[in-house]
């Protein structure tokens, strides 16, 4: 074996061992989270204005953290509650509704408050493959800003699973984003919410 | 003789190193690159439907998976507390775990089989087809949208009957997944696909995942499995139809 091959072999072995045993933080950019491309009955509701009053994260972990697998941490570049609120806002805007920043002077049709109680990634190791499971869940409280102040409180959950044969790092980001989109879709296609907005 | 051994041994070591190198490269590659991606669908564009007036809708349900998977309880998790028990303990534990798992698995597969017996596939096909077609009719998406019970008609036959396109709905997976303890969740994947006859192109192809809203013991699904599945397929069909009804 040539000397150069030996060095190459050692380099590959070194990188592999480094990646396997040395922990690091993987940050998922919230800007990379796409919007849904599926049809939504939210579009059939006449254009409404909405504001976000408060979005809380009650998961009891770091506000940016999605999960820690071994010594690897997976985080978002913004707090999880902010990312969830942003995804809901994008979905409402995609369907023709308008966001207004919340203030005591603003006069939106609806005020939305949210509590994120699940946002996680888990990995189940099998003998041959790993299953990556992404979960996202939020409880929304939507108040009509008219005189009657009618309220709809409902939880929406999204889950996405993916089997992978190799290292999970590349897949985690995709699974996390897809779980969030599944949660947004659950909200976007909810007949109860549509009926409430149309009332 | 020594020379021959030396050469043989050298070649052996060399091939072993090469094999190890390939293995390490695969490991590194799998860490650095994504091995699986989220499947991307083909989404509808309004121009895709511009010259379509008569659409056939067919639905098919693949044989449901009755061998339900355990979302928890993989071997790696079972082995975790065994680090300090020693080899003998390990073997005894493994035998116990595999025996128990075997018995439970046998019982569970039997129950899952009973769940399957309650399933009438043609009813499920009709359910997903009708739940898809109703929003289309309500939304006036096409002049004619018809559900065809005979799913085996080919493009020529449908074209001869005046259809411009066909929407195929496949319930490609119905499965029971153990989630927490003895609680099981019912999952289904429904894939929708539209083929336009004039171009032969697939203009819409995406999947809808639906699951039972709550988890229950397997026995619950022996009685209520079909009812749960009906509601799930109705939701999947409706959500798929929204792509047409609320097209930009």
The quaternary structure here is heterodimer
Radius of gyration from the alpha-carbon trace of chain B, in angstroms: 26 Å
Low-confidence stretches of chain A are none
> How many structural domains are formed by the residues of chain B?
2
Which sheet architecture does the biggest sheet of chain B show? 7 strands, mixed
The CATH class of the largest domain in chain B is identified as Alpha Beta
The CATH architecture designation of chain A is: 3-Layer(aba) Sandwich
List the helices and strands and how they pair.
The complex is a heterodimer of chains A (199) and B (248).
Chain A (H helix, E strand, L loop, with lengths): L2 H19 L3 E4 L20 E9 L7 E5 L2 E5 L3 H15 L3 E2 L10 E16 L4 E15 L6 E14 L4 H20 L2 H8 L1
Parallel strand pairs in A: 1-4, 2-5, 2-6
Antiparallel strand pairs in A: 3-4, 6-7, 7-8
Helix pairs in contact in A: 2-3
Chain B lengths: L1 H31 L21 E8 L7 E2 L4 H5 L6 H32 L3 H19 L4 E4 L7 H6 L4 E16 L2 E14 L5 E10 L4 E2 H28 L3
Parallel strand pairs in B: 1-3, 1-4, 2-4
Antiparallel strand pairs in B: 4-5, 5-6, 5-7
Helix pairs in contact in B: 3-6, 4-6
